[in-house]
Amino acid sequence: MHNKSTPTCRTRIGSLLAGLGLLAAACGVTALAADTGWGGKARPPQYKESIFPPWQHGANNPALDKGLEFTVPEINDLPDFHGDPMTSKLNIFVAGNYYFAMAPLVAAFEKEHPALKGHIYYETLPPGILLKQMAHGGTITVGNMTWTVKPDVYAAGLKKIKAGIAKGELVAPAIPYVTNDLTIMIPKDNPAHIASLTDLGKPGVKLSMPNPAWEGVSRQIEASLVKAGGKKLEQTVYEAKVKDGQTILTHIHHRQTPLFLMQGLADAGVTWKSEAIFQEQVGHPIGHVDIPAADNTTAIYGVAVVKGAAHPEAGKEWAEFLRTPAALTIFEKYGFKPYMDKAS
Fold first, then answer.
1. 146 DSSP β-pair partners
2. Does some domain include residue 344?
3. 137 CB burial (10 A radius; 0-12, 13-18, 19+)
4. Which residues pair with 289 in a beta bridge?
5. What are the helix (H) ranges across 127-272?
6. Hey, CA dihedral for 234, 236, 237, 238, is it positive or negative?
7. Which of 135, 155, 173, 307 could be cross-linked to 303 through a Cys-Cys bond (beta carbons 3.0 to 4.6 Å apart)?
């Protein structure tokens, strides 16, 4: 029999961790703490596909036979995993910096390689997390599901690609193909009146920032913060504000930043410019503030075939495809620039 003096069992749904769906519940005397460890707020689910991924409504799934489609925003949602690993003939691990460009890239690649149509699987997690998955033999667990996919090709920052080759994880050559610059992503109405990187250090300005533990972009961001406001600004954003809860560090990647902005959990966040452009293109209430060249940091993206790949030839074809005119046209739509070798 229920004891009226005992609090009624209550279940609260935690805010979306960029599509992987963290379900938190508390029952009994102790209520669920509002602090879930990442600075978010417990709130009822808001099943709005206009806010929660997958934003492409299935267009980023290259599988031909999708069977029963069962996607519930915030709860059952795997936006960083694409395709059918059971029938794949090319497995791509790509840093999530351009998850939004992958669908058109895959479609263009399939036109050139029709035998691979419907047989491409790709993941768009942060590069550090992808490397951890590779270290576990390609096995990953999300919620109650575990599966294994060994990549044929790995794409990330050029320095990380070269490091992987040096460690024997990847096979030379390292192929650079595009570059990207940073920007400050903001809600469209810019309630905190952000105009520059130095504004991010102001008291009361809530931030969503990539986590240095697994996102390489954080190093570029830290460098830009130092350029704009010295070491003090970098420490304010990535240390002091993290401690007092004004900076939320992402748990997946910067796909979370627009989510936090649209839910009012943050006022700004530094991302790659391409991501802000994508959010604006799909009509989300997101804007961006350009960072001057003197304070900005440019990333070079590279790719290489994975050592021991099951489909090395397909992996090589994908790597070479990324710097073709067809691929570069797609990248340029989102603000990427073709990589130009200074030595050439």
1. 141
2. no
3. exposed
4. 184
5. 127-135, 158-166, 217-235, 241-243, 256-262
6. positive
7. 155
Residues 310 and 271 in one domain: no
Phi first, then psi: give them for residue 218, nearest 5 degrees.
Answer: -60, -30
Question: Helix (H, G, I), strand (E, B), or coil: what is residue 269?
Answer: strand
Same-domain check for residues 270 and 212:
yes
Task: Tell me the residue type at 150.
Answer: K
271: nearest Cα among 344, 209, 336, 194? 209
pTM comes to 0.77
Task: Give the H/E segment covering residue 304.
Answer: strand 298-306
Q: What is the pLDDT of residues 263-305, one digit of tens each?
A: 899 999 999 999 999 999 989 999 999 999 999 999 999 999 9
Looking up tokens 């492409």, which residue turns up? Answer: 56
Tell me the residue range of the domain where 141 lies: 81-173+304-338
CA 285 to chain centre: 19
* List of residues 6+ apart from 160 with CB closer than 8 A: 127, 216, 302
Strand partners, 207: 247, 268
Cα(228)–Cα(182) distance, integer angstroms: 13
pLDDT of residue 50: 60
DSSP classification of residue 295 = T
Residue ranges of the chain with per-residue pLDDT less than 50? 1-38, 42, 45, 47, 343-344
Is 334:101 a contact under the CB 8 Å cutoff? Answer: yes
| CATH assignment of the domain containing 237 | 3.40.190.10
The answer to whether residues 272 and 99 touch, using CB atoms and an 8 Å cutoff, is no
Q: Residue 70: what residue type?
A: F
Amino acid making up residue 22 = L
Farthest-apart Cα atoms in the chain, separation: 79
Lookup result for tokens 């491409």: 120
| Structure confidence by residue, pLDDT tens digits, 296-325 | 999 999 999 999 999 999 999 999 999 999
Are 229 and 315 in a shared domain? no
Quote the radius of gyration of the chain (alpha carbons, Å). Answer: 21
Query: Among all chains, which residue has been given the structure tokens 């990535």?
Result: 238
Q: Looking at residue 30, what is its pLDDT?
A: 31
